[in-house]
Amino acid sequence: MKRVLVAVVLLLLVCIGCAVSITLQHAVLEEFMTKTEQMEELFKRGDVAGAVAAAESFTADYTDKTRVFSLFLPHTMLTEVEKSVVSLPAILTHGEHKDFVAEVHRCRLLLQKMHDLEMPTLQNIL
Q: Is the separation of the CB atoms in 17 and 71 below 8 Å?
């Protein structure tokens, strides 16, 4: 009987850990998608300096908040998103400003895809 109780407790801990990780990942990715929208709005209003500051802040936040994502997300996806995130400030300071909006859209799409791939839906399970 003790073995069954230990097994049930372990299964509950795993389920709780999964629910917490999905909830935290969802919250972080939603925050990042909101930040990409804010960067785009700043740029479209003509505030390039504000967009650069927001992009640099976004890059630092991404690096800090996604450190544990490598435990449960595919590394290729994380690397692809990181390439996009890191290039945002560089595009504004050294590149073509027209490319910034396209890269922000690409970054948002990758973040949305990362979010959708980790949701426990029937499509992702099968």
A: no
pLDDT tens-digit map of 71-110:
878 888 889 999 999 999 999 888 777 889 999 999 999 9
Q: What pTM was computed for the model?
A: 0.83
| 39-62 b/e (C-beta count within 10 Å ≥ 16 → b) | bbebbeeeeeeebbebbeebbeeb
Closest by CA to 89, choosing from 35, 51, 117, is: 51
Q: Measure the CA–CA gap between 80 and 87, rounded to whole angstroms.
A: 11
Q: Which of 7, 1, 24, 9 is nearest to 115 (CA)?
A: 24
